[in-house]
Amino acid sequence: MNEAKNSAETTAAPIYQNQVRLVGYIGKQPERYEGRTVFTVATQSSWKPVGSEEWKQETEWHRVVAWGKLAAIGAEFVKGDYVSVEGELRSSQYERIIQASSGTDATVTIKAWQIRARAMQKLERKKKALAVNA
Prior knowledge:
Layout: H1 2-11, E1 20-26, E2 31-33, E3 36-47, E4 56-67, H2 69-75, E5 82-99, E6 105-122
Parallel strand pairs: 4-6
Antiparallel strand pairs: 1-3, 1-5, 2-3, 3-4, 5-6
């Protein structure tokens, strides 16, 4: 009985999973640093509010960090490239000193999110059909 229980536990899906897949456009030229490449990917959501005839759109910007061999691939991307990026969501915190309107300095803790790339590739854009007048 214990053997069946143990084998079922080992084949079960992991309890935790951190996986992100983005498909979008490179927002600005990737920046190469020591051992890593950093770039942004824009994704867009569209929806039509109830009772409205107009579509709404929202663009999200995602910071992507690629390390090692992927850094070399990311460094070849250029602004406007259509890409697919897979990785995991990571957060980091840092402190920034800001000057208040009263002239005193205040320290603010900022939490930033980024995607640590595990796989990425440049995609082909579909060409729009040209209208031909006969």
